[in-house]
Design brief:
The chain has 187 residues and is of the alpha/beta class. The protein is 34% helix and 27% strand. It has a 6-stranded parallel beta sheet, with helices on both faces.
Length: 187
């Protein structure tokens, strides 16, 4: 059942111009991140608040590969320019929704949210066990998050790269956010 749900997510995310990677275990995440950074000619990457072991592994792999890495806590005096200067942002999704191909990111700090919105490439990571079938299933974790954090809380649904059709009625990617989006599903 979980494999079928992952397949639905991957297909939907691809239909939204996103690139999905399914990996077996957290140890396989850092190599994918480094590969993406190399593919997009990255010089600087910003990491949002990632789970501890994953953050350390990604940071270490990126530094070893020669990339400059920005990590939280970010200096608020340097924001948003510090994150805007990053080529790639890497963030953690609390969960994802298969039917919409969306990653759902929770943030209590604007700097964390900027990591997924300012760089030209975004990599969102989530656990396959946190993949929900549909938007109706998303209601309870959203409600719980806002009950637990009544102030300064933000939930962002990320469904592939930024898109708009405001310019001459043509679909354009990357105008209001990342032009390239990757999702890494940890199976």
């Amino acid at each position: 059942m979980r494999a079928a749900l992952i397949d639905v997510f991957v297909k939907k995310y691809a239909s939204l111009s996103g690139i999905a990677h399914v990996v077996n275990g957290a140890d396989a995440v850092a190599p994918i991140v480094v590969q993406v950074l190399g593919d997009v000619d990255c010089k600087r990457v910003a990491l949002a608040e990632l789970p501890d072991g994953l953050a350390d592994a990604i940071q270490s792999a990126c530094v070893d590969a020669g990339f400059e890495v920005l990590t939280p806590p970010f200096d608020n005096r340097a924001l948003p320019h510090a994150i805007d200067a990053a080529d790639v942002g890497v963030s953690w999704a609390a969960f994802a929704v298969a039917e919409s191909g969306s990653l759902v990111e929770f943030a209590l700090d604007d700097a964390v949210r900027l990591v997924s919105t300012l760089p030209r490439v975004h990599i969102g990571i989530f656990q396959a066990s946190a993949l929900l079938a549909n938007l109706t299933d998303a209601a309870e974790p959203l409600r719980q998050f806002f009950e637990d954090h009544p102030h300064n809380a933000t939930a962002t649904f990320i469904s592939g790269p930024s898109r708009t059709a405001d310019i001459e009625m043509r679909l354009t990617l990357g105008v209001h956010g990342p032009e390239v989006a990757h999702a890494i599903v940890i199976a």
